[in-house]
Amino acid sequence: MSMIRSDWMFSEADQEFYRQNGYRTYDHFLTDEALACCQREIDVMLSELQPGRDPADIISPHCIKRWIWDLANEPCILDAMESQIGANIVLWSTHMLCKPPGSGIEIPWHQDAPYWNVGGPLPAGLWIAFDAMDEDNGAMVVLPGWHRKGTLPIDAREDALFDQMIAPQALPPDVDSATCQYRMPAGGAGLHDTMLPHYSTPNQSRRWRRVLVLRYMSAEGDMGEKMYEDYRDGSPMPREYFLVRGDDVLQRGLPRAPGSFR
Ligand SMILES: O=C(O)CCC(=O)C(=O)O
Description:
Elements: H1 12-21, E1 23-26, H2 32-47, H3 66-72, H4 75-85, E2 89-99, E3 107-110, E4 125-129, E5 141-142, E6 154-156, E7 164-166, H5 175-178, E8 180-181, E9 189-192, E10 198-200, E11 209-218, E12 227-229, E13 236-238, E14 242-245
Antiparallel strand pairs: 1-9, 2-11, 2-14, 3-10, 4-9, 4-11, 5-8, 5-10, 6-7, 12-13
The structure holds 2-oxoglutaric acid (AKG).
2-oxoglutaric acid binds next to strand 4, strand 10 and strand 11.
Protein backbone atom coordinates (compact mmCIF):
# COMPACT_ATOMS: atom_id res chain seq x y z
CA MET A 1 0.00 0.00 0.00
CA SER A 2 1.32 3.43 -0.87
CA MET A 3 2.70 5.64 1.90
CA ILE A 4 1.66 8.74 -0.05
CA ARG A 5 -1.88 10.07 -0.03
CA SER A 6 -3.78 9.13 -3.16
CA ASP A 7 -4.72 12.79 -3.78
CA TRP A 8 -1.10 14.03 -3.75
CA MET A 9 0.46 15.11 -7.02
CA PHE A 10 2.94 17.63 -8.39
CA SER A 11 0.34 19.23 -10.63
CA GLU A 12 0.90 21.65 -13.52
CA ALA A 13 -0.06 24.52 -11.20
CA ASP A 14 2.40 23.25 -8.56
CA GLN A 15 5.13 23.02 -11.17
CA GLU A 16 4.50 26.59 -12.26
CA PHE A 17 4.59 27.81 -8.63
CA TYR A 18 7.78 25.81 -8.09
CA ARG A 19 9.44 27.25 -11.21
CA GLN A 20 8.62 30.79 -10.11
CA ASN A 21 9.42 30.48 -6.42
CA GLY A 22 11.87 27.57 -6.15
CA TYR A 23 9.77 25.63 -3.66
CA ARG A 24 6.31 24.20 -3.11
CA THR A 25 4.95 22.93 0.21
CA TYR A 26 2.10 20.53 0.96
CA ASP A 27 0.22 20.17 4.24
CA HIS A 28 -0.83 16.63 3.37
CA PHE A 29 1.62 14.18 1.81
CA LEU A 30 1.99 10.97 3.87
CA THR A 31 -1.05 8.89 4.72
CA ASP A 32 -1.97 8.82 8.42
CA GLU A 33 -0.97 5.14 8.62
CA ALA A 34 2.38 5.80 6.95
CA LEU A 35 3.08 8.77 9.22
CA ALA A 36 2.46 6.70 12.35
CA CYS A 37 4.62 3.90 10.99
CA CYS A 38 7.46 6.29 10.01
CA GLN A 39 7.38 7.92 13.46
CA ARG A 40 7.74 4.50 15.10
CA GLU A 41 10.57 3.56 12.76
CA ILE A 42 12.41 6.81 13.49
CA ASP A 43 12.15 6.08 17.20
CA VAL A 44 13.80 2.73 16.48
CA MET A 45 16.57 4.48 14.53
CA LEU A 46 17.16 6.95 17.34
CA SER A 47 17.42 4.05 19.78
CA GLU A 48 20.08 2.49 17.54
CA LEU A 49 22.35 5.54 17.43
CA GLN A 50 25.99 4.86 18.11
CA PRO A 51 26.67 5.75 21.78
CA GLY A 52 27.79 9.36 21.95
CA ARG A 53 26.42 10.28 18.51
CA ASP A 54 24.36 13.46 18.56
CA PRO A 55 20.74 12.69 17.47
CA ALA A 56 20.97 15.92 15.44
CA ASP A 57 23.76 14.51 13.24
CA ILE A 58 22.63 14.24 9.63
CA ILE A 59 22.36 10.60 8.65
CA SER A 60 21.86 8.87 5.30
CA PRO A 61 19.80 5.72 5.94
CA HIS A 62 18.36 4.44 2.63
CA CYS A 63 20.82 1.52 2.40
CA ILE A 64 20.16 0.61 6.02
CA LYS A 65 16.41 0.91 6.40
CA ARG A 66 14.11 -0.79 3.92
CA TRP A 67 11.20 1.55 4.77
CA ILE A 68 13.23 4.57 3.70
CA TRP A 69 14.20 2.85 0.47
CA ASP A 70 10.51 2.02 -0.14
CA LEU A 71 9.47 5.59 0.57
CA ALA A 72 12.09 6.94 -1.83
CA ASN A 73 10.79 4.58 -4.52
CA GLU A 74 7.13 5.55 -4.29
CA PRO A 75 5.91 5.84 -7.92
CA CYS A 76 4.19 9.20 -7.41
CA ILE A 77 7.44 10.68 -6.03
CA LEU A 78 9.35 9.37 -9.03
CA ASP A 79 6.63 10.81 -11.29
CA ALA A 80 7.26 14.23 -9.70
CA MET A 81 11.00 13.83 -10.28
CA GLU A 82 10.43 12.63 -13.85
CA SER A 83 8.45 15.76 -14.64
CA GLN A 84 11.58 17.75 -13.77
CA ILE A 85 14.52 15.71 -15.11
CA GLY A 86 13.13 13.07 -17.45
CA ALA A 87 12.64 9.32 -17.14
CA ASN A 88 16.14 8.15 -16.15
CA ILE A 89 16.30 8.77 -12.42
CA VAL A 90 18.98 8.03 -9.85
CA LEU A 91 18.54 8.13 -6.09
CA TRP A 92 21.84 9.29 -4.67
CA SER A 93 21.19 10.40 -1.12
CA THR A 94 18.75 10.60 1.74
CA HIS A 95 19.28 12.91 4.70
CA MET A 96 17.54 12.48 8.04
CA LEU A 97 17.69 15.77 9.95
CA CYS A 98 16.37 15.42 13.49
CA LYS A 99 16.39 18.19 16.04
CA PRO A 100 15.52 17.02 19.56
CA PRO A 101 13.43 19.32 21.80
CA GLY A 102 15.39 22.39 22.85
CA SER A 103 18.44 21.57 20.75
CA GLY A 104 19.68 20.72 17.29
CA ILE A 105 22.10 22.43 15.01
CA GLU A 106 21.67 25.72 13.24
CA ILE A 107 21.97 25.21 9.48
CA PRO A 108 23.22 28.48 7.99
CA TRP A 109 22.07 30.06 4.74
CA HIS A 110 23.26 27.87 1.88
CA GLN A 111 22.44 26.53 -1.55
CA ASP A 112 22.50 22.74 -1.91
CA ALA A 113 23.95 21.99 -5.32
CA PRO A 114 27.41 23.53 -4.74
CA TYR A 115 28.06 21.10 -1.83
CA TRP A 116 27.37 17.84 -3.35
CA ASN A 117 29.90 16.65 -5.86
CA VAL A 118 27.11 15.72 -8.25
CA GLY A 119 26.25 17.48 -11.51
CA GLY A 120 23.78 17.60 -14.36
CA PRO A 121 20.03 18.05 -14.12
CA LEU A 122 18.94 18.00 -10.46
CA PRO A 123 15.28 17.90 -9.45
CA ALA A 124 13.93 19.36 -6.23
CA GLY A 125 14.90 17.89 -2.89
CA LEU A 126 11.83 16.35 -1.27
CA TRP A 127 11.65 17.40 2.42
CA ILE A 128 9.24 15.21 4.40
CA ALA A 129 8.06 16.32 7.86
CA PHE A 130 7.39 13.67 10.49
CA ASP A 131 6.42 16.30 13.09
CA ALA A 132 4.38 19.47 12.84
CA MET A 133 6.71 22.23 11.64
CA ASP A 134 6.77 25.89 12.58
CA GLU A 135 9.05 28.72 13.61
CA ASP A 136 9.50 27.28 17.12
CA ASN A 137 10.95 23.90 16.24
CA GLY A 138 13.44 24.89 13.58
CA ALA A 139 11.50 24.45 10.35
CA MET A 140 13.31 25.36 7.14
CA VAL A 141 13.26 28.94 5.87
CA VAL A 142 13.64 29.68 2.14
CA LEU A 143 14.22 32.76 0.02
CA PRO A 144 11.54 32.56 -2.69
CA GLY A 145 12.67 33.27 -6.24
CA TRP A 146 16.38 33.26 -5.41
CA HIS A 147 16.99 29.89 -7.08
CA ARG A 148 17.39 31.91 -10.27
CA LYS A 149 20.33 34.00 -9.02
CA GLY A 150 23.02 31.39 -9.80
CA THR A 151 25.68 30.35 -7.33
CA LEU A 152 25.96 32.99 -4.61
CA PRO A 153 29.33 33.95 -3.08
CA ILE A 154 30.21 32.00 0.02
CA ASP A 155 31.74 32.88 3.34
CA ALA A 156 34.14 29.95 3.83
CA ARG A 157 34.06 28.63 7.38
CA GLU A 158 36.10 26.06 9.20
CA ASP A 159 32.85 24.35 10.17
CA ALA A 160 33.09 20.75 8.92
CA LEU A 161 29.45 20.38 7.96
CA PHE A 162 28.53 23.65 6.27
CA ASP A 163 31.69 25.29 5.02
CA GLN A 164 29.83 27.02 2.21
CA MET A 165 27.59 29.45 4.04
CA ILE A 166 26.27 32.17 1.72
CA ALA A 167 28.09 35.44 2.39
CA PRO A 168 25.64 37.68 4.31
CA GLN A 169 26.22 40.58 1.89
CA ALA A 170 25.00 38.36 -0.98
CA LEU A 171 21.54 38.16 0.60
CA PRO A 172 19.00 40.99 0.30
CA PRO A 173 19.31 43.65 3.05
CA ASP A 174 15.71 43.01 4.14
CA VAL A 175 16.21 39.25 4.02
CA ASP A 176 13.92 38.42 6.94
CA SER A 177 10.94 40.05 5.29
CA ALA A 178 11.69 38.27 1.99
CA THR A 179 11.72 34.75 3.42
CA CYS A 180 9.12 32.04 3.70
CA GLN A 181 9.18 29.56 6.59
CA TYR A 182 7.86 26.04 6.12
CA ARG A 183 4.83 25.54 8.36
CA MET A 184 2.90 22.31 8.04
CA PRO A 185 1.32 19.49 10.00
CA ALA A 186 3.17 16.23 10.57
CA GLY A 187 2.99 14.24 7.35
CA GLY A 188 3.41 17.34 5.16
CA ALA A 189 6.26 17.87 2.70
CA GLY A 190 8.05 20.44 0.58
CA LEU A 191 9.97 20.43 -2.68
CA HIS A 192 12.91 22.83 -2.93
CA ASP A 193 15.16 23.72 -5.83
CA THR A 194 18.79 22.74 -5.26
CA MET A 195 19.85 26.37 -5.87
CA LEU A 196 17.29 27.96 -3.53
CA PRO A 197 18.96 29.63 -0.51
CA HIS A 198 17.65 28.18 2.75
CA TYR A 199 18.51 27.83 6.43
CA SER A 200 17.07 26.57 9.69
CA THR A 201 17.43 27.48 13.34
CA PRO A 202 17.85 25.15 16.33
CA ASN A 203 14.69 23.67 17.79
CA GLN A 204 13.53 25.99 20.59
CA SER A 205 10.37 24.07 21.38
CA ARG A 206 9.61 21.09 23.60
CA ARG A 207 8.67 19.06 20.53
CA TRP A 208 10.82 16.96 18.19
CA ARG A 209 11.55 18.12 14.69
CA ARG A 210 12.22 15.11 12.44
CA VAL A 211 12.68 15.45 8.69
CA LEU A 212 13.85 13.24 5.84
CA VAL A 213 15.12 14.75 2.60
CA LEU A 214 15.20 12.59 -0.55
CA ARG A 215 17.64 13.53 -3.30
CA TYR A 216 17.60 12.40 -6.90
CA MET A 217 19.43 13.23 -10.10
CA SER A 218 19.44 12.36 -13.79
CA ALA A 219 21.23 9.14 -14.80
CA GLU A 220 23.17 11.37 -17.24
CA GLY A 221 24.64 13.50 -14.46
CA ASP A 222 28.10 13.57 -12.88
CA MET A 223 28.44 11.19 -9.95
CA GLY A 224 31.19 12.15 -7.53
CA GLU A 225 32.40 10.28 -4.48
CA LYS A 226 31.56 11.03 -0.89
CA MET A 227 31.82 9.11 2.35
CA TYR A 228 28.98 8.75 4.85
CA GLU A 229 28.89 6.93 8.17
CA ASP A 230 26.59 4.24 9.44
CA TYR A 231 24.77 6.01 12.29
CA ARG A 232 24.79 2.78 14.34
CA ASP A 233 28.53 2.24 14.58
CA GLY A 234 30.30 4.94 12.58
CA SER A 235 31.50 2.50 9.92
CA PRO A 236 32.22 4.12 6.53
CA MET A 237 29.57 3.94 3.79
CA PRO A 238 30.67 5.22 0.38
CA ARG A 239 27.98 7.07 -1.57
CA GLU A 240 26.17 4.77 -4.00
CA TYR A 241 24.07 5.74 -7.00
CA PHE A 242 20.92 3.67 -7.64
CA LEU A 243 18.92 3.70 -10.85
CA VAL A 244 15.37 3.85 -9.53
CA ARG A 245 13.59 4.48 -12.85
CA GLY A 246 14.44 4.28 -16.55
CA ASP A 247 17.72 3.35 -18.21
CA ASP A 248 21.38 3.45 -17.34
CA VAL A 249 21.91 5.67 -20.38
CA LEU A 250 25.67 6.02 -19.97
CA GLN A 251 26.06 2.30 -19.18
CA ARG A 252 27.82 2.83 -15.90
CA GLY A 253 26.53 -0.40 -14.39
CA LEU A 254 24.26 1.41 -11.94
CA PRO A 255 22.51 -1.01 -9.54
CA ARG A 256 18.74 -0.74 -9.16
CA ALA A 257 18.75 -1.41 -5.41
CA PRO A 258 21.17 -2.16 -2.58
CA GLY A 259 22.26 -5.82 -2.62
CA SER A 260 20.98 -6.09 0.93
CA PHE A 261 20.05 -3.72 3.70
CA ARG A 262 22.87 -3.39 6.20
O1 LIG B 1 15.84 20.73 7.19
C1 LIG B 1 16.59 21.70 7.32
O2 LIG B 1 16.58 22.38 8.31
C2 LIG B 1 17.57 22.04 6.26
C3 LIG B 1 17.48 21.12 5.12
C4 LIG B 1 18.49 21.37 4.11
O3 LIG B 1 19.41 22.12 4.27
C5 LIG B 1 18.33 20.70 2.84
O4 LIG B 1 17.39 19.92 2.66
O5 LIG B 1 19.13 20.94 1.95
